[in-house]
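Ticket #4471: structure export looks truncated?
Reporter: QA, pipeline team
Priority: medium

Steps to reproduce: submit the single chain below to the structure queue and open the exported record.
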Amino acid sequence: MDLNTLNQFRVVARLEHLSRAADELRVAQPSVSRTIARLESELGAPLFDRAGRLRLNDTGKLFLGYVERALGELDAGRRAVAEATSEGFGTVRLASETFLTLTGPLAAYKRAHPAIEVELRWTPAEDMGRLLRAQDVDLCVASQPIRAEGLESATLFEEAVWVATPRDHPLAGRTSVSIDDLAGQPFVTSRKGHWVRGLLDRLFAGHGLTPKIVCEGDEHSAIAELISAGLGIGLVPALARRTATNDAVAWIAVDDPGCRRTVTLFWGAGSHLSSAARLMRTLITGWDWETGAPQGNYR
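Actual output as written to the record:
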């Protein structure tokens, strides 16, 4: 059982598809199939169900956790040695559901540490725990809870989430609305997995309702533009409201205590964080989200 075998298993387990895994690994599919078969023979147990499409079974899921931690520790060791023997601080890897919230801290970080390489990865919250435990990323910022063991966290800020409507919308003159007021209204929102969509679904489900969604996508920065164009209404956080330049949108408070988001920074408990990652953690946790500037004299 060598590192190449473990890495191939990890890719196949993630994709649950041999030909796509072979393409990503840049090897022939029969070679990947033989690698997985040899691994299962060595372990004495099948790792995948093969009835219909390939599926990672419970044994495979159990083994995958150990493989991810082992490969993550090896990668962390390589980076620790590189940091100890080379100039500079190396690389920091940050995952987030959206980077619009983090543009200020990221810009300040690069100004202070131009030699550090920053790797950004858009990641749904449901994948963050696995990536942190496997040490595929150093830090994660999420606007919804990450239900995974072995993580540490720091709350960055909490804020209200508003409803944005076109200026000529019937609700535009209201100071607040209830969820019942929003029933049947056309919503512009993000795809499932993003915190905005999760919040919208939870709010409506709490009232026994289902939101009417007329547009869902991955371009979160376009939501306000689509709303101002009259395509529908949508949930937008207070931070975006403060920085908005589009005056064609009306902002209305939602009369529901759950219409809020809590933005949290996560990292692996007990994992080795490089100097680059520790510096970024210090900056982000010390950021003044009201003024958009670091607290104190950050360097």
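Status: closed, not a bug. The export was complete when the record was re-opened. Leaving a note from the reviewer for reference: The chain has a mean pLDDT of 88.
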